[in-house]
Amino acid sequence: MIEGLFNYWVVIILMMAGLYVVMASRHLVKKIIGLNIFQTAVFILFISLGKVSGGTAPIIADGFAVYSNPLPHVLILTAIVVGVATTALGLAIAVRVYEAYDTVDEEDIAALDAEDQQRDNAVSTVTDTTS
Amino acid sequence: MISTQLPAIVLLLTLLSAPICSMIRNGDHAWKLAMFAVWLSVAAAFALMSQVWGGTTLSYHMGGWPPPWGIEVRVDELSALVLILITLFGALVISALRESLRTVMRSHRHSLYYATFLLCMAALIGITITGDAFNVFVFLEISSLSTYALIARGRDRRALVAAFRYLIMGTIGATFILIAIGFMYMVTGTLNMADLAQRLPEHADNKVIQASFAFFTVGIALKVAVFPLHYWLPNAYTYAPKATTAFLAATATKVALYVMIRFIFDVYGVEFSFSQMRLDMLLIPLSIAGILLGSMTAIFQSDVKRLLAWSSVAQLGYMVLGVALLNTSGLTSAVTHMFNHAMMKAGLFLALAAMIYRVGSSNLRDLAGIGRTMPLTTAAFVILGAGLVGVPLTAGFISKWYLVSAALDKGWLPLAALLIISSLMALAYIAKIVDAAYFQPVPDQHQNVRDVPVSILTPVWVFALLTIYFGIDTRMTAGVAERVAQALLSVAS
Amino acid sequence: MLVATAVTIIRTRKLMSAVMLMGFYSLLCSCIFMVLDAVDVAFTEAAVGAGVSTIFFLAAIAIVGRTSKPTLPGKTVVPLIACIATGALLFYASFDMPYFGSADAPVHQHVAPRYLEDSPQEVGPPNVVTSVLASYRGYDTFGEVGVVFTAFIGVLLLLGAGTRRSGIERTAPGDTNDESMRQKIVLREVSDLVIAPVLVFALYVQWHGDFGPGGGFQAGVIFASAIFLYALIYGIVPAQKLLPPRKLAYLPGVGLLLYAGVGVYSMLMGGNFLDYDFVAADPHDGQHYGILIIELGVGITVAAVMINIFYSFSERSL
Known about the structure:
Structural class of chain C: mainly alpha
Number of helices of chain C: 15
CATH class of chain A: Mainly Alpha
Low-confidence stretches of chain C: 163-181
Mean pLDDT of chain C: 74
Helix content of chain A: over 70%
Distance between the termini of chain A: 58 Å
Largest interface: A-C, 84 and 98 residues
Low-confidence stretches of chain A: 124-131
Shape of chain A: elongated
Distance between the termini of chain C: 37 Å
Oligomer: heterotrimer
CATH architecture of chain A: Orthogonal Bundle
Order of helices and strands of chain C: HHHHHHHHHHHHHHH
Radius of gyration of chain A: 23 Å
Number of domains of chain A: 1
Number of strands of chain C: 0
Shape of chain C: globular
Helix content of chain C: over 70%
Strand content of chain A: under 5%
Structural class of chain A: mainly alpha
């Protein structure tokens, strides 16, 4: 049983590690790193599904009879692309946050937000043409 | 030929005009193209509805491969209704978009903005019509990415933080859904939703499927913003650009709810979701908490945009409650309210956008006396607000009526009473706005405010009139919803 | 090994090392994919995880700074609980999972056999992953190109297109008169040697996807990496002269439209969307041409999007 499930357990630990970084880290970029770890762990899970012992890569050729399952590979190719797209957009937002707040630390941002909130409430007429 | 290709066409219209839009430098031309595309897709959505009217299901095989090998697109009455919701309300918002963007963005950025908008719409359409579980994930990500970008465009810097938080939450949610799909695939070997539905019952005792269900529920609850996973929503709605909020409030969470209904009832099956996993025990308390918390918080807001955002948390609670009550009236109310609330909230946010367009703020202090300076806009706002409260002859009344009768069917009198109380709370926060609009003096600096141009006013009034229309003629909303509810529930029994 | 790397990433507060470790982690993952027979995925993970996304991270860090503060003590409780709950659920599920590598697992029974047995006749390419990706599940791949395109539009909307040339030319670190650049003479010589083969390799991967691992997506990423390399050595300005952002900004859309064009064409010829059987008179040729063109569309979109995003980031860091 240990051998049969060991692969999954490693994946689970990686997922937990990634998820922890996402939620606990204060630095926005580090959160995205965490997301990457989390997603990659899921990718390994999918690919593990496709493996057949003694199989070979699913490229049809003479001399091989057992191939691993190609479908998870296709799904994960797509998911990797989705992941990098998310990363790029997330980093872009993080960069904009930095330009607006001069920090990418979540606690600092929360403090600055609180100031914004107070200012909103204090000024009787907000003159900016918000969005 | 066109009629058989409609499921692909309804998606392609928006998806293909997005890249073309992004290439057009002139914002006005891009807008015209976007308008052309979305109104055509409205027509396509209605045409699809007429094809499936009465309960037929269309199946379209992408690439010509039969399911489960290829990807299947399925359209039934429920998805056709959601299609109409997305395209019609999206089209109305886009109609108002050109005028409202003019003040905030330089012209060459407009094209990109429309392109993002179209992508988001296309993705939501894709989610609605697909019959393949993994395909849901792909389109979910397109819609999410475009939503993050749209929210981050808000003027206030807090929009960026809101977008970032939403990105983190949304990606976790999507990855959870991906895990759930992976687990289902692990046990059944298929990704097609209809095929899954057939194969899952025999594995109901499998721990992998149970975990899959848990991951799916958490993941989709993040997207629907079910209490307590709603916390991204108020900020995202408040700081997003004003017209964007109208679109998102109408569509994004509703489509997520649609996915939730689809998977819980069609894929996992009623038997498994409710009898075995006891999902109702989880969702009923949570949705009630969401309704109460959302309404309470809304009452104490001084910013109308934030007030409406919190009211959305409460209203989503109604829909989830309708799902969880698990009887025909409840499910009918959930589906009807999904449509009605999308219409009313989009209208409200759009009317509010019109006010911000003139006044420059959505704070109650600045909206004082707006009923006199902008009479037409405010009148529409009041009609839509009445719908939100659930006044008879408005669309909101219909859905609440079904929900209350669902509670009564179950014999849960306290719940029915609670729903009436929460409606009174809605009355309180709408009355607060009406009070400011009509009974407060106009601040000096806003004396010269006038009504908005026709191009914004027309969509706002269309929303208002539709709210009344669907309060009287319910064939397309409650009628469809009732058939859908019966079909969804009968699968199990 | 993976776990150790992941834990180090959590512990380190230096973002630079976190990003480098992230790249290393991706490389390890791609080795695992290789061992698990997923050559295409390994290829992509290496190119994306260790290549493109590391570059994006570096570009972002160059802007936002390199260190992060430690988490406040009270703030670790909730994440920890959530993580443990998730982990526990996964462990619970793992006991019913089919054993790793077993050939009789349900995944290998239902849908997959047809791909393996019939795809050479039905679709053509010996690489089954390509067949499934481009034909059976071509609609998913179309959506995937849509995702990449959406990211592109989103970054463009947020950061701008990287076209603000004025004023930057003076300060660009890659300026040829820059003193530090002269010391990189070795780097430049090496890169001159490397970039051309990399570009050729990208084209090879593009067309070879039918037979070996590879295809439009991998080719696009490799092509983009070559440009990144060029930009890192020579500076962003010469790179932008080579591939002007203004023109490049059209290409992602062109790729997507090319992909969709094949689909629409097959619809006009009487088939369903993306049914390549209708692309040519003979279904077998149709599949062949269809896959070739859509892979090209994927390649164009991916390469152009990656380079565009890179431009947008580097524009901000100057």
